[in-house]
């Protein structure tokens, strides 16, 4: 069997006018072979696949086939270790190549994209970002991007927060529902700890109680995606990359409020007015179609709370979530009840509300209500010149005089030789 290069050479020499015998002598091949390939023209030679010899892996092939039939996902390294325990003494590469031929083919059809009807589903997740605010040059801060993406329209609502804790999760949900004017029927979550606590003995997902209360209030059903299946929530994963590359990278932000304000403008002016690459529709136009299908917002605000007890510090502050909130100077008890709502911190003394604050982002910050600090005015005193000085003997008083008077008395006494 000649090689493809030799075939090209035969045809080229024949085109130059050389005889079959001359071509055979020049290339060192038989004249019949030259004549045959001249007749066929430029046709790649067909090579017969040789049947591989069993070799050193041969005795272990039945075991390997049985294991691969039962567990197609077993790695070649794992199977190599197993047959080594059964007496195989060869190298790993031989086993790897043989398993590659033996492994049953995987089903590799086209990926079917899961689309949802209007108002049916949204996807929620947090993404990690590092930022250096211009108000704090040289200081790297970690912030988290909360994002809710509607499945039908791909409409994005997002906000940067300092923590991905439960209160941030609840506040962002409330703000997102208010912005989009309703709630979807289902919300898909990654297995974040603030949403999913774990699974019971039967494998059923256990959701955070506060999230369940929020879902009951707004009428949606929380659903946890399958573990290690990023494609399950691809509608929210891909926008994170889009936000990072199209908005965040190369930007300049003074602080967290400025970062969120710029993000809001970018969403309103760039992200949501664009033609989506998958749906081939303008996001805002699709959202206008989806919005009537969302569940209407409830008449009453969400008011679920977390009850805590906190000790008042010496400077009249209580600590909640790493931040400090003031209480009035008139507070008498050292331990107070604190109710943490999604949008408020309320502090009670013996059942009476004594302070209410908007929650702070971050840690180590203080929120002081000026009305909580009332400094008593200093006591009224008479002018210094008119204040009497009480002497040692009871009932005796002397008027306060300027120092010049006593200096004059001293000089006169000195000129007369002192007191007698």
Radius of gyration: 42 Å
- Tell how many strands the DSSP assignment holds: 16
The neighbouring-strand order within the major sheet is 3-2-1-4-7
Mean pLDDT: 81
Query: What is the helix fraction of residues, given as a range?
Result: 25-40%
Give me the strand/helix succession.
HHHHHHEEEHEEEHEHHHEEEEEEEEEH
Biggest pleated sheet:
5 strands, mixed
Terminal CA distance reads 148 Å
The global form is elongated
**Share in β-strands:** 15-25%
The low-confidence parts are: 108-112, 230-234
Number of contiguous helices = 12
Structural class: alpha+beta
List keywords for this structure.
420 residues; alpha+beta; 5-stranded mixed beta sheet; 4-stranded antiparallel beta sheet; elongated
SSE topology sketch:
Blueprint: H1 4-15, H2 20-27, H3 31-40, H4 61-70, H5 76-84, H6 92-102, E1 121-131, E2 141-150, E3 156-161, H7 166-180, E4 186-189, E5 196-199, E6 205-207, H8 209-218, E7 221-224, H9 234-248, H10 256-271, H11 283-290, E8 305-311, E9 317-320, E10 323-326, E11 335-341, E12 345-349, E13 352-357, E14 366-367, E15 389-390, E16 397-398, H12 403-415
What does this structure look like?
By secondary structure, the chain is an alpha+beta fold. It is 33% helix and 19% strand. It is built from 12 helices and 16 strands. The chain has a 5-stranded mixed β-sheet with strand order 3-2-1-4-7, with helices on both faces. β12 (345-349) and β13 (352-357) form a beta hairpin. The longest helix is centred in the middle third of the chain and has 16 residues, at 256-271. It starts with a helix and ends in a 5-residue tail after the last helix.
């Amino acid at each position: 069997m000649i090689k493809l290069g030799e075939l090209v050479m035969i045809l080229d020499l024949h085109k130059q006018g050389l005889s079959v015998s001359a071509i055979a002598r020049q290339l060192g091949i038989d004249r019949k072979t030259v004549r045959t390939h001249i007749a066929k023209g430029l046709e790649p030679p067909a090579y017969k696949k040789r049947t591989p010899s069993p070799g050193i892996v041969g005795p272990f092939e039945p075991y390997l086939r049985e294991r691969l039939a039962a567990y197609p996902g077993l790695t070649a390294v794992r199977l190599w270790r197993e047959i080594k325990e059964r007496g195989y003494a060869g190298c790993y590469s031989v086993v790897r190549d043989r398993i590659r031929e033996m492994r049953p083919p995987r089903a590799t059809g086209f990926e079917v994209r899961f689309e949802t009807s209007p108002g049916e589903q949204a996807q929620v997740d947090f993404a990690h970002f590092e930022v250096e605010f211009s108000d704090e040059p040289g200081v790297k801060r970690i912030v988290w991007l909360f994002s809710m993406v509607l499945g039908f329209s791909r409409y994005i609502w997002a906000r940067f927060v300092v923590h991905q804790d439960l209160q941030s999760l609840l506040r962002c949900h409330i703000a997102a529902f208010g912005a989009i004017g309703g709630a979807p029927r289902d919300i898909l979550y990654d297995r974040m700890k603030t949403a999913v606590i774990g699974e019971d003995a039967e494998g059923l997902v256990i959701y955070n109680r506060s999230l369940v209360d929020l879902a009951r209030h707004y009428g949606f059903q929380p659903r946890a995606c399958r573990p290690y299946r990023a494609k399950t929530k691809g509608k929210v994963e891909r926008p994170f990359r889009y936000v990072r590359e199209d908005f965040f990278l190369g930007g300049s932000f003074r602080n967290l409020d400025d970062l969120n304000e710029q993000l809001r403008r970018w969403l309103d002016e760039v992200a949501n007015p664009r033609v989506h690459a998958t749906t081939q529709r303008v996001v805002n136009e699709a959202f206008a179609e989806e919005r009537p299908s969302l569940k209407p917002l409830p008449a009453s605000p969400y008011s679920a709370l977390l009850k805590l007890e906190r000790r008042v510090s010496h400077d009249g502050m209580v600590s909640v979530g790493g931040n400090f909130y003031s209480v009035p100077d008139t507070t008498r008890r050292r331990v107070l009840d604190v109710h943490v709502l999604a949008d408020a911190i309320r502090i009670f003394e013996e059942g009476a509300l004594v302070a209410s604050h908007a929650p702070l982002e971050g840690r180590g910050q203080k929120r002081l209500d000026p009305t909580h600090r009332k400094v008593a005015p200093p006591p009224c005193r008479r002018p210094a010149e008119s204040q009497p000085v009480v002497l040692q003997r009871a009932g005796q008083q002397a008027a306060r005089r300027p120092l010049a008077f006593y200096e004059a008395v001293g000089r006169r006494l000195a000129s007369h030789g002192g007191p007698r």
